[in-house]
Amino acid sequence: MGTGQSGQPGGRPEDTDRPGRTGLDHRGGGDGSPAEAADWEPPTETERLLYRAASTGDWDTFYERLGNTHLFFPQRQELSDVLGGARLPAFRSEQPPGLSVPVFTRGMMPPPTPGQVYEMTTLYHLARHWLRSADWLAVNPGTPLETFVPSRPRRWKRHAQRCDRLDQPRLMTLRTGRLRDTVAHGMACGALPMVDSHELWNDPGWHSRGYTYQRDELRHLWGITSRDTWLPRLAALVHAEHHDPLWEFVLQVRTAFRDAYHLLPDAGQWQQTTEQVMLGRTAEIVDATNRPPDFDLDTAIARTNALIERILRCEARFRADGVLGPDPGDIVRSVTAWDFGVGSGMARWGVGARFGEVAEAEEALRRISEGARSVYRSWADFAAGYLLGRCLHAGDEEFGTWYTELAAVHRLLRADPESPWLTVPWSDLPGDGAAAS
After folding, report:
1. Where does the record place the DUF1266 domain (predicted)?
2. Which of 86, 90, 144, 408 is 20 to 30 A from 426, comparing alpha carbons?
């Protein structure tokens, strides 16, 4: 790292606001224009904007964009396990001369390697906790976008403080990643939560918001602390065994009623039919065991009736928000999409926490894709199933902020030209070939 030419030969970083070196300095040609690197494709919109700003010398825009994105610094895994990712690394570069702190933008992150992890930071955080001995901030070192930024923490803070978009949901695509094959389809099954969390929807080499963050999230939300606790959770999601089976049961009763009578039951018919099925199954249990059931049947029926009413309220809200079509016949047929969507994330979260390998995540994503396509007919069908599962998972909560945010993401995924719902076919997927196709 750091093998280019200094922007100001013989000068110290404090003598200039210009970068000491950029990746443009060693790509051949003469004027450092983007055309010189026509064979290099910026992996995300962030890198494209940084590249354009650096190539034109627009450093105000460069700093502003840098201040409006998550940055990641490398760390030995055992060090992060002890320190929680709190220590910035540094290396000594020859050109430009001095001590440099390396950071990467999300699209330029190297693939996971044993013993090496990445922790998340921001330009604002770096400005507040800067190493006084450091001369340079090495942005994406060793890549075509490599830029050595002079040590100017006060300037960084000014730019970072003006950035108000860092936490807004937005669709981010890794343009150099998988885009149309079965693995891409499996990742697209997680697009709603990924975009809601402003993550790359198609990155199997997951870094999330850093190694320590990912481990903490898995521990706090899922009780996952090791590979041995991650694998069973992932398997349950891949096989659609995580959701409450009662949810799927009542939806299947409605589907069976429609198939038998060629019309949808109203609320009363649905509840009455479900009760009849429950009574019949309970009688079968009693006949087989010669004992009464180990549950209170009246309570179970009351719970089922309440669930049916909640599903109908959710579907009415979905029609108002465009998640379902306006026709009352547009309904949710299954909530297994909830498991598949969460499983799409879980496969990659395990990689970020170093509980699993990328190859394992990709195999899980293929199986998620196959499972989703065996149940649903389209991305719209799948999305409605995921959102209903999310609503039922919320329990008694009625369409809180989490729902309005997901509904906004749903609208984005229906309209954005880069949305996987528009670029990844639901069926007739290409084979697992090249990454980008």
Report:
1. 218-426
2. 408
What is the percentage of the chain residues whose pLDDT exceeds 90? 66
Which residues contact residue 298 at a Cβ distance below 8 angstroms, ignoring those fewer than 6 apart? none
State mean pLDDT over 286-298.
79
Query: What is the dihedral angle through the alpha carbons of 111, 115, 118, 119, rounded to the nearest 10 degrees?
Result: 160
CA distance 392 to 249: 14
- Residues 101 and 137 sit within 8 Å (Cβ to Cβ): yes
**Global pTM?**
0.88
Above 70 in pLDDT, residue 34? no
Angle at 184 between CA 347 and CA 377, to 5 degrees: 100
Helix (H) or strand (E) holding 369: helix 358-375
Q: Is the pLDDT of residue 255 over 80?
A: yes
Q: What is the rounded CA–CA span in Å between residue 155 and residue 63? A: 9
Cα(278)–Cα(401) distance, rounded to whole angstroms?
35
Query: Directed axis angle between helix 245-261 and helix 297-321, to 10°?
Result: 70
Total residue length of the chain: 437
The pair of structure tokens assigned to 148 is 């050595």
